[in-house]
Design a protein that fits this description.
By secondary structure, the protein is mainly alpha-helical. Helices cover about 50% and strands about 5% of the residues. A hairpin with a 6-residue loop joins strand 1 and strand 2.
Amino acid sequence: MTDKTTPPPIAPERTDLADLVRDRMAELGIGLRPLAAASIDPENPAAGPLWTRPTIQKFLSGGKIKAPGPAELRALAAALQLPLRDVQDAAAAQYFGMDALYSSDGTVRAMVHDFEALSPEDRQKVIDLMERFRNG
């Protein structure tokens, strides 16, 4: 017996991290070379810059690159002068379709796949669950 169910529709490509990088570069007034030169992981500065100008250029122009790992995200956050969690959230959204949600006081973070696609009732359930964890 073959499964004749229709596969789920393909979600549109997300560009959360690329948008964050592009917007922050504009805010800081920096170009690709300075960003690449400043992309040093604060936990391992001896490794030097972890992003190259061609990689950043390809990434910002919509080209595919491998999802950045923890060190690359720390380096990017440092170069952009942003909190690491902002860069992590944008990367999770772009590469894995995960939306970051925070409790009202910011102490609990939940990663939910495609949160906006949930029904309003299910979104509220997720928020209520986070608040329960926050309140112990």
